[in-house]
Design brief:
Number of strands: 12
Distance between the termini: 24 Å
Number of helices: 9
Structural class: alpha/beta
Radius of gyration: 20 Å
CATH topology of the largest domain: Four Helix Bundle (Hemerythrin (Met), subunit A)
Order of helices and strands: EEEEEEHEEHHHHHHEEHEEH
CATH class of the largest domain: Mainly Alpha
Strand order of the largest sheet: 1-5-7-8
CATH architecture of the largest domain: Up-down Bundle
Number of domains: 2
């Protein structure tokens, strides 16, 4: 799966000479360091300080997840990309241009939701037309009129709710949800959304780590203790493209099935290990999808597109260039 390694079983991760070694059930699985950029620990994994030092020297980011498949935290190598100059500019942008950047993120979310829905409308699903018309004709006006973050977030929230309301026209009946429930997810579609969003959030953390941006200073979401809020901002734009397109394809092609791939309990529903592996494979394939970026005149992946959005933010802060997040239709 490219530069990402997933560990989905309980075990111990250690350094073995100049390689990583994952030990489970008294068997060793070796992970080459050369092409590894990030590791996802999806189960209980034991580590030690010797390993952390080795990971730091090789600039490998490790993401940890809890029992409910939610994000717990990230091990960061020491901050080799810190920039005092950009930090000052990022704080200035938050103070002076927060609404401009937040509105750009919401416009990006809506544009990409539109493109994802339009694919199904084009394939003779006329029921989606009302939501498409609202995104095209009413959402921009509502966004323009927003004068503070709360109003901007309300426009974003309504956009997502209208998107969710169309799932009944896209997915088979047993996957349709009544409402979005996150912690913990309570039905199969909520489980898929939560897991996909968490994977994308971690991918975005890695992308931002490899720039000079500060994870803590965000624009759409409130900067808060205990989470990397800029990663929430940047990842939102890519959710329709990466998370939801992956979900729609896996469910509609019956590669994921409720009876086979989910563990259901009284208050929660989670992907089982087989279901997680199917989703991860499709998610990684989506991340590595190659397309022509017209401005650069070269082929890139969605992984690269996320990082390019970070650089767009940097150019806005340093050079005053207009910030426009990735647009699925324009491929840039």
């Amino acid at each position: 799966m490219g530069s990402t390694r997933y560990i989905s079983s309980m075990g111990e991760l250690t350094r073995k000479d100049n390689s990583l070694c994952f030990r489970k059930n008294n068997k060793n699985v070796y992970i080459p360091v050369e092409n590894t950029k990030e590791i996802y620990c999806l189960s209980e994994v034991s580590i030690n300080t010797k390993l952390l030092d080795f990971l730091s020297k090789n600039n490998i980011v490790v993401h940890f997840f809890n029992y409910y498949e939610g994000y717990s935290g990230t091990f960061y190598p020491k901050g080799q990309y810190n920039s005092g100059k950009l930090l000052v500019k990022q704080v200035e942008a938050f103070k002076e241009n927060r609404l401009v950047i937040a509105k750009a993120f919401v416009k990006g979310i809506a544009d990409n939701i539109y493109e994802v829905l339009y694919h199904y409308y084009r394939h003779d699903n006329g029921k989606i037309k009302d939501t498409l018309d609202w995104i095209k004709d009413f959402m921009p006006d509502n966004l323009d009129k927003a004068t503070d973050i709360k109003m901007i977030m309300q426009v974003e929230g309504e956009t997502w709710q209208r998107f969710y309301s169309e799932f009944k026209n896209i997915l088979p009946e047993d996957f349709v949800m009544n409402k979005r429930v996150k912690r913990p997810p309570d039905n199969p579609i909520n489980a898929l959304i939560s897991f996909g969003n968490t994977l994308l959030y971690a991918k975005t953390i890695t992308a931002i780590y490899n720039t000079h941006l500060d994870q803590r200073i965000s624009f759409l979401h409130e900067p808060s203790e205990g989470r990397f809020s800029l990663s929430l901002d940047v990842s939102e734009v890519f959710k329709p493209i990466i998370v939801f397109r992956t979900i729609f394809e896996l469910v509609n092609k019956r590669q994921l099935q409720i009876a086979k791939h989910f563990d259901k309990n009284l208050n929660y529903c989670l992907l089982n290990e087989e279901g997680r592996n199917i989703f991860i494979k499709a998610f990684e394939e989506r991340m590595e999808t190659v397309f022509l970026q017209p401005k650069l005149k070269r082929k890139i992946t969605y992984r690269t597109a996320i990082k390019l959005d970070c650089y767009k933010l940097i150019k806005f802060m340093l050079e005053g260039r207009k910030f426009k997040p990735f647009n699925l239709k324009e491929k840039m």
